[in-house]
Amino acid sequence: MDFYNILIKWYLQNKRDLPWRKTTNPYQIWLSEIMLQQTRVAQGMPYFFVFTKEFPTVKDLADASEEKVLKLWQGLGYYSRARNLHKTAQFIAYELNGVFPDSYKELLKLKGVGEYTAAAIASFSYNEVVPVVDGNVFRVLSRYFDIETDIALPATKKEFSALAQELMPSDNPAIFNQAIMEFGALQCVPKNPDCDICVFNDSCAALQKKKVNMLPVKLKKTKVTNRFFNYLILEDTLGNTLIQKRTAKGIWHNLYEFPLLETQEIASFDFVANEVQKTILASYTILSIEECSETTVIHKLSHQHLHIQFWKIKVEGVIVDGVDLEKLKTFPFPIVIYNFIENMEVKF
């Protein structure tokens, strides 16, 4: 079919030199696919190199502590991916004797592996004829064929999967999947693609109908919640501080943070000083409180915007289980807290 031939020719001329394309090892392909979920290639690649060096095999990853895995994942975001990655590595290493499932159906049973990731591993590692459907594929197919179905609807994925299956050759599904995703990433980009140089500019329905920037259709809007975090940076007479592990379900599960005061809005100095004295740090004698920065840090997650303030609080005496600055940097933190620690002007 013309679409396939044109696409593959474009791919062979334009594809990026990515390390996970040089192997059929399911461990490395799985690792790359989990890392690239909701993450750009440029951001994810350094992490891929770190993980494959630190954990050359799935057994090495399984044997590591979760804290070490989270520390190496620090800054990549969506930390549930790292926790699922670790648990799945343990399942494969200990329950499956280190052997990955070799079919789409069996791969789907792994924790943290959805339809897209299972299809990617099955086609890239085992050449199984199963299409990958991600945001790039939605965009390419919806524009080329002028499909106005709302991609936010669950049923839409089946429609696009069926279309991709029709276009996919049975003898080389891996190259088709790689090619269509790469085309969406490099050429048929979300905003203002350069259609003048596109290899499909004489056959793309959306271009002919001047609908390129209207497709794909996605009507569902993500509801964003605003939350207000006040982190309390304690400093005792030894220069040590206090941190805690987030054990509750939700964002940053099992990562570390400073003592937290969550408020309904951006907090004033007087409010924080009063709350800290009354409740959170009632057992400490507070010597001084000051805001570490005049600007509130806004940290944007997929469904939440966190408005973060840091407060330096000197306390009398010695903090039980206090941590010095050198040891502090060895714990896995959310990147916004890690950046604060790296840029701290105060020395504990």
TrEMBL record:
* Class of enzymatic activity (EC top level): hydrolase
Query: Which reaction(s) are listed as its catalytic activity?
Result: Hydrolyzes free adenine bases from 7,8-dihydro-8-oxoguanine:adenine mismatched double-stranded DNA, leaving an apurinic site
Q: Where is the HhH-GPD domain?
A: 35-186
Cofactor requirements of the protein? [4Fe-4S] cluster
Q: What is its EC number?
A: 3.2.2.31
Q: Which domain of life is it from?
A: Bacteria
* Gene3D superfamilies hit by this protein: Helix-hairpin-Helix base-excision DNA repair enzymes (C-terminal), Hypothetical protein, domain 2, Nucleoside Triphosphate Pyrophosphohydrolase
Pfam families on file:
EndIII_4Fe-2S (PF10576), HHH (PF00633), HhH-GPD (PF00730), NUDIX_4 (PF14815)
Cofactor binding, note field: Binds 1 [4Fe-4S] cluster.
Q: Which UniProt keywords apply?
A: 4Fe-4S, DNA damage, DNA repair, Glycosidase, Hydrolase, Iron, Iron-sulfur, Metal-binding
Q: Which GO terms describe its molecular function?
A: purine-specific mismatch base pair DNA N-glycosylase activity
**Xref: SMART domains:** ENDO3c (SM00478)
Q: What does this protein do?
A: Adenine glycosylase active on G-A mispairs. MutY also corrects error-prone DNA synthesis past GO lesions which are due to the oxidatively damaged form of guanine: 7,8-dihydro-8-oxoguanine (8-oxo-dGTP).
Family of this protein: Belongs to the Nth/MutY family.
This chain belongs to the protein called Adenine DNA glycosylase
